[in-house]
Structures are given as C-alpha cells and as structure tokens.
C-alpha cells in the first residue's frame, strides 16, 4: 500500500522515534519531577530535552512556556475554555476543525466567522468590520487540514495586535512541516497549539502549546505537581500549573526525536507534493482544492465528478492507495466549498513519500475516472 493519509497521522516515523521510546522502558526511567534519584532525573531530562528540541524548532522559546500534554485537542480545549467567557465575542474562520469549533460552541460565546478568499485563506481584510466592544480574541487554524492553505503567522499576529486581540492558533497541520518562527512572539498575547503525531513525526498522545506573553488560561485539570504538596491549589509556576499528573515520558522521548528529525527535514519533500497537485490538476473531471498561490502544507483535497468522496477512497484503496474521504472534522469549510453532500478525497505526502508513490497514485486516480 502507498500511505498518503499523512494529514491524519504520519504512519512512517524515523527509526529513532521508536528506539527512544523503547529506551525509556528499559527499567532505568522513573517518574519525572517526583524524586531526587537518577531514575527520576533521567525521565526529567527526557521532558526538558523535548522542550529544548521544540524551542529550537521554532527559533527559540522560553522552556517553561512550552507546555506538554496529550496533543492539540487538549491544548485547544485548555486555551479556549481557559480564556473565553460566555459574554465574549470571538472571531474565528470557516476553515476550523471541530477541535476549535466544539470548545468554542461550549463556551457559549458570540462567534463571527471569516470567509475564505480564492486561495482558501481566511479573509483578514474583513476583521475590522467584525470587531465589537466585547471582541476578545482571534481563534483559527494556521494551516487547513482540508485544503492545505496556510495563513502566514506574522500576518495573523499583526491583524490581532492591530485590533488589541489575543490569538489562539491551531498548528496541528503546520508545525514541523513549514518553518514556524515563534521567537519574536514569545512576549505576545498568543497561544500556538500543536500535536505530536502528524508532521512532527512523533507518537500519538503527545503535543502541547507555546504560551506567549501574559496569557494565562485557567488550567483544565489539577492534581499532583511534585512540589507544594500541602497547597490546596496548583502551584502557579510555569509549566507546572498546566502539567498536573505524570508526564508521558515514552511518548515525549519519541516526540523529541521526531522534532529533531523535522528540524532537519523541513525543507524537503515538496517536489513529490507539487507533482501530485499538478498531476491532479491536469486530470479531467477532477476539481482540486489547494491554493494556487502562497504558503501551503503538503495536503490536497479533490472531488471526482460523478463520485462521492467515499467511493473515490474505496476505489483508490482497491488500487493500493490510502487517503481519507469525507468531511475531515471541518464541517464549515465544506459548506463554504459546497462539498457538504459528498465530502472530499484528501491526500497528503510526508518526508517518506517517493516519486514512484506519486506516479502510482496519479495512475490510480486516472484509472477510476
Ligand atoms: C487542523 C486540525 N486541528 C486539530 C486536529 C486534532 O488533532 P489531534 O487528534 O491530534 O488532537 C486535527 C487532526 O486531524 C487537525 O487536522
């Protein structure tokens, strides 16, 4: 099989990821931050080493502001539920994943949605017209999991700052795949959430967020912190306030290696993806949803005339190609693209995709038309 469902998760990881995970299970790793012996210290080194690797990936970020948890869904819930009040007005976009939309709906806040431009990017020129007296923040995806369109981080931050808003960004599809420079954003009112198992090539159940400026969402969970055991509340120190309970040391060991891998690999793999998109665009009866211009990830969705996306996925699977069909947990973008009946077929390359994979995939798509 040819695996092109990398926007869901990168199935193929660098070997160092599994090796590092196994090492933490060899009988010499204790509970991080919960003892003064070498076992505990070794585990703590894994946790801090992962923060260091993530900091390097984004051009530098204070270690204690890199919060680790089970992934971007956790991070977005923490950021949104910890910051948004029911009386607030929040600006978001039609490109969002349910991990943004559902927490926002749960807060009961008032929402306005930015529509997309012709390259599938949220139309920032409209932010001004949406601002109200109770507008507090901009919550949006950095890169769409449907079209691959990326909104430049600097533009998002500039727009938010110009209107006095804080920003929560969903970096599930971007961190590790495109350069993301957060160094200058460390003092800004922004939260950048990420997940370990997609373009960071780490294991599932890992991820976190970069916490900028003075933003301090209320923590989602409380519990053991390793210090101040007699206190009835969580210590307020970063990152401890947000990291109650025992950390996922095997997962973080794997994530650390994945992050180091993509710090090196971030510039590669685009030829394969460009060939895939250009090949799809050249096929009759295929409509491609991916930006013609501007930054984008290696994710493309397409519709084949006369077929529901589920049928396309099934026919491609019969020909040895794994992708994903349907709505990709992003309901509003399908309304905007008018694909809410049949959904879209999505393919995404990774650093492990080969030129031969793309040739075979394009032949398979051509074969089913
Ligand atoms: C844009 C986007 N946000 C959030 C998520 C949720 O990621 P996870 O399931 O790793 O928490 C995904 C995963 O598909 C995604 O593509």
Give a written overview of the molecule:
Keywords: Aminotransferase, Transferase. GO terms for molecular function: transaminase activity. This is Aminotransferase class V-fold PLP-dependent enzyme. It comes from Peptoniphilus equinus. With 369 residues, the chain is of the alpha/beta class. It has 2 domains: 112 residues, Aspartate Aminotransferase, domain 1, CATH 3.90.1150; 250 residues, Aspartate Aminotransferase, domain 2 (3-Layer(aba) Sandwich), CATH 3.40.640.10. Helices cover 34% and strands 15% of the residues. It has 11 helices and 12 strands. A 7-stranded mixed sheet has the order 2-8-7-6-5-3-4, sandwiched between helices. Strands 9-10-12 form a 3-stranded antiparallel sheet. A two-stranded parallel sheet has the order 1-11. The chain is globular, with a radius of gyration of 21 Å. The mean pLDDT is 96. Pyridoxal-5'-phosphate (PLP) binds next to helix 3. Pyridoxal-5'-phosphate binds next to helix 3.
């Amino acid at each position: 099989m040819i695996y092109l469902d990398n926007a869901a998760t990168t199935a193929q990881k660098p070997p160092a990821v599994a090796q590092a995970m196994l090492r933490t299970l060899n009988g010499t790793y204790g509970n991080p931050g919960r003892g003064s012996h070498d076992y505990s210290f070794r585990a703590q080194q894994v946790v801090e080493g992962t923060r260091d690797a993530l900091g390097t990936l984004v051009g530098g970020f204070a270690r204690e502001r890199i919060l680790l948890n089970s992934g971007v869904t956790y991070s977005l819930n923490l950021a949104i539920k910890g910051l948004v009040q029911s009386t607030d007005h929040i600006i978001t976009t039609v490109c969002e994943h349910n991990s943004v939309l559902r927490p926002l709906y749960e807060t009961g806040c008032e929402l306005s949605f930015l529509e997309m431009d012709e390259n599938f990017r949220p139309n920032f020129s409209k932010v001004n017209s949406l601002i109200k007296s109770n507008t507090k923040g901009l919550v949006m995806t950095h890169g769409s999991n449907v079209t691959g369109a990326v909104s430049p981080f600097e533009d998002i931050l500039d727009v938010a700052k110009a209107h006095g808003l804080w920003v929560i960004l969903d970096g599930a599809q971007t961190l590790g795949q495109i350069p993301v420079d957060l160094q200058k954003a460390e003092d800004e009112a922004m939260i950048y959430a990420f997940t370990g198992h997609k373009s960071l090539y780490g294991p599932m159940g890992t991820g976190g967020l970069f916490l900028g400026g003075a933003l301090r969402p209320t923590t989602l969970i409380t519990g053991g912190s390793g210090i101040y055991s007699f206190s009835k509340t969580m210590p307020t120190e970063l990152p401890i306030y947000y990291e109650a309970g025992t950390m996922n040391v095997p997962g973080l060991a794997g994530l650390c290696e994945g992050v180091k891998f993509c710090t090196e690999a971030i510039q590669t793999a685009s030829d394969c993806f460009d060939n895939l998109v250009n090949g799809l665009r050249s096929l009759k009866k295929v409509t491609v949803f991916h930006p013609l211009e501007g930054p984008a990830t290696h994710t493309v969705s397409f519709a084949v005339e006369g077929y529901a996306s589920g049928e396309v996925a099934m026919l491609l699977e019969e020909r040895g190609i794994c992708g994903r069909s349907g709505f990709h947990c992003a309901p509003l973008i399908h309304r905007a693209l008018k694909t809410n009946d049949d959904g879209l077929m999505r393919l995404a390359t990774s650093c492990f995709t080969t030129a031969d994979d793309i040739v075979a995939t394009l032949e398979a798509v051509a074969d089913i038309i």
